[in-house]
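subagent[fold] <- orchestrator: predict structure for attached chain, return tokens only, no commentary.
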Amino acid sequence: MPSVVKINVLTVPTEQREVLEQRFASRAGAVESSDGFEWFELLRPVEGTDQYLVYTRWRSEEDFQAWMEGPMKAAHQGGGQGGQGGGGERPKPAASASTVWSFEVVQQAAPKKA
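subagent[fold] -> orchestrator:
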């Protein structure tokens, strides 16, 4: 069964780039222990676009969906820290738009060992 790749395309205004990158840095480790998780990369645009790519690879679609419904959902709802009296409003999103692309891995290669 091939792995699945999810690429979240985030449109990020220039003034929000640092905010986005800091938020991803502070969540380090949040997905790595999820069952079926294989890889993560945050890709910063170099030229010609304001879209970041959040690349994740999963053992199966089911593993990705389980993460979406569990740990990811909890993290995006404030980590389960209740909405009242706990430090004010949730910060506004750094991205102005988000689209998820889905792929199956049909071929892959790694560097040859010398």
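orchestrator: received. Logging for downstream: The radius of gyration is 16 Å. The first strand starts at residue 4 and ends at 11.
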